[in-house]
Amino acid sequence: MVALVFFLPAAQGPERHQQHRTGRDRRRKRIFEVLDTEPEIRSAPNATGLARDFRTIDFRNVSFRYEEAPVLRNINLTVRAGETIAIVGKSGGGKTTLVNLIRGSMTCQTGRS
Q1: Which stretch of DSSP H or E encloses residue 58?
Q2: How, if at all, do strands 110-112 and 69-80 pair?
Q3: Strand order in the sheet with 69-80
Q4: C-alpha distances out from residue 102 to 47, 57, 108, Å
């Protein structure tokens, strides 16, 4: 069954296989664009970056909104050094915003990060 999943795009024909690769490449490129983005609030007095020797990322009741649209509401998250997490959700659900808050390129509007 696992082998079928890996070979399915190629078995559906070269056009379908190319579409699958193109979509994957686009998503990969977008991830690195977000990670490589320079923080806009670097000079803000309350901006904090992520230290290289951090022990814990800790968010308590963090909320964020774009204009009138709330994206994150009362998020609680603790990640210890060495742990691996996955951030999953629907489009527009706040995944990229959460990553930007973790990176320090945005600041939460309420709560503690």
Answers
A1: strand 56-66
A2: unpaired
A3: 69-80, 56-66, 110-112
A4: 11, 8, 10
Judged by DSSP in three states, 42 sits in coil
Walk me through the domains of the chain, giving residue ranges and CATH numbers.
2-36 (no CATH), 56-112 (3.40.50.300)
Taking a C-beta distance cutoff of 8 angstroms, is the pair 44, 104 a contact? no
Amino acid at 65: R
Give 10-residue mean pLDDT values along the chain (113 residues).
49 60 82 79 57 77 87 91 89 89 81 76
Per the structure block, which two tokens stand in for 92? 């527009």
- Distance of alpha carbon 106 from its chain centroid, rounded? 12
Scan for tokens 């000079």, then name that residue.
Answer: 43
Q: What is the spatial distance between Cα 109 and Cα 83, in angstroms, rounded to a whole number?
A: 26
CB 72 within 8 A of CB 97: yes
Cross-strand partners of 75: 62
